[in-house]
Amino acid sequence: MNNDKYIQRDSYLKKLIIRKDNGEVKIITGPRRCGKSWLLSHIYRDYLTDQGVPSENIIALDFDKDDDKYDFDILDPKAVKNHIYSQIKSDTENYYIFLDEIQELENFERLVNGLNGHDNIDVYVTGSNSRFLSKDIRTIFRGRGDEIRVFPLSFREFYQALHYDVREAWKVYSTFGGMPRLIHYTDDEQKINYLQNLWDKTYIDDVVERNKVRNELAVSRLATSLCSSIGSLTNPARIANTLESVQKMKIDSKTVSSYIDYLENAFLFESAERYDVKGRRYYETNKKYYCIDIGLRNARLNFRQQEPTHIMENVLYNHLRVLGYLVDVGIVESREMKDGKMSYSQREIDFIANKGSRKYYIQSAYSIPSEEKREQELASLLKISDSFKKIVVVGDEIMPYTDDNGIYFTGLFDFLLKDEWL
């Protein structure tokens, strides 16, 4: 079995290399245990040393460790500052500062901005909290912050690292997901325990502590509810009603909305808004939520709800996000004649993926067993009049083709493993 060191995560390494010595603070964000620390402390460190950077010019501190590794108080900003500057011996040599889980250090902004003010110091920080979201970086780092978002292993990374047969790789990945540490485990029980402990001992506890939540049980059950409804339209009011009817928990929609924000800010879930393709506007109500990792989702549900359609949709969403696309749910409204009467219809496109000038309309179709199902999947795409690429991803292994309407069809594995589609 390979270990973490052989998962090179080349796409993230390239992003760091491009940003090296650019005068900005590099902020690596993502959920806890997704590989941010390994990316810096091993993959990027190895790159720097291979480029001739002396090991003593790479200064790394981990603020998430409560041990005796350091001979000073790692959570005392003044002690941290004194330690770092004591390691910088030259004004002409370049130094690389790695600060892991920086949000654990009070008043870290002053320390980081001070370090970044030196021409020969290149600063890299990691964070697992929303204080590092793009909208806040401009304020925290005085407009000199550059975010790199890290996700758990994509299916492509997982497949390339472990060299399974592609069908076996999908079977394992769609069940246990891509949290990097899982590659150490060969036993399913170990994998299950690890994922469930992440929820109980890391994620939920962190959300509750950081946001001073009084009702930990409500946050826990809300996470379960979101995992249960991935890919389904919902809103805080509907979730509150579900928690009351199913879990017998009385909670108002405003509190649910706040708790959802906490879970999103911890990078555990992402929401996709509904976008009217023809009207070019967003709907204010109802969103779809996706879990950041399908294995975490399954573990939260005790591996009970193993619906292949929803799992495939969540994996496709995460794949698009790993590639850097912003993702919405598309809505196409139209009026049609039906049974002699004019009726109003609203059809859904699973994903609208946007990155700069690029846009794709994507349908996730686990299987298309009949012409009726095919027409159902194509109905929304055929209502779009613009020239952006339209793709139907099928769970079956098929030979890619383009139909008479210019719509591309491809199998799931081809879409996830090859670059030609996007």
From TrEMBL:
Domain of life: Bacteria
Gene3D superfamilies the record matches: P-loop containing nucleotide triphosphate hydrolases
Signal peptide: none
Chain ranges of the AAA domain: 24-158
Sequence ranges assigned to domain DUF4143 in this UniProt record: 205-364
InterPro entries the record matches: AAA_14 (IPR041682), DUF4143 (IPR025420), P-loop_NTPase (IPR027417)
Keyword Flavoprotein: no
GO molecular function, one term: ATP binding
UniProt entry tagged with the keyword ATP-binding: yes
One Pfam family cited in the UniProt record for this chain: AAA_14
Entry keyword set: ATP-binding, Nucleotide-binding
Protein name according to UniProt: ATP-binding protein
Organism name: Paramuribaculum intestinale
